[in-house]
Amino acid sequence: MHFFFFFLKAKYPDSNGKAFLTDQHDDFFHTGIIVLGARSFCHIVGARSGWNSSLSHIKSWAENKIFHVGDSIVFIYEPPLSVLVVNRDAYLNCNTQNYIAMYGDGQTNLELRHPGPQYFIGGKGYCKSGVKLEIVVLPELSS
């Protein structure tokens, strides 16, 4: 495996060869040097604004991101907001009853384990106010 040094803004350096990528203008996160494997990244959903009630913010954050199997995404939020992993139908209809997994700890780290579309919504009425995310995960990068 090849390793690279990156100058990144990061909040939670990870000991498993990953770095949390953030907005370069985000004063909330500290700057650091992180060593990471060339094949996996950790994306903080929404960068400095996190997982919140702004659909346009979440959509614009995701538009320029590339996700691969092996990457992780981190949701940072204030409970009672939660993260629900759902199927496409539940995503489109904000169905919070039909979820695959639910998290509510305020900092949820999910590894992307399979390629294809993946869907996340906010629970307890938050989805209907715009807290939802659709991403497309590409196959794992080869070495």
UniProtKB/TrEMBL annotation:
InterPro entries: Cupredoxin, Phytocyanin-like, Phytocyanin_dom. It holds the Pfam family Cu_bind_like. One of its GO terms (cellular component) is plasma membrane. Keywords: Disulfide bond, Glycoprotein. Residues 41-139 form the Phytocyanin domain. GO terms for molecular function: electron transfer activity. Gene3D superfamilies: Cupredoxins - blue copper proteins. This is Phytocyanin domain-containing protein. It comes from Acer yangbiense. The lineage of its organism: Eukaryota, Viridiplantae, Streptophyta, Embryophyta, Tracheophyta.
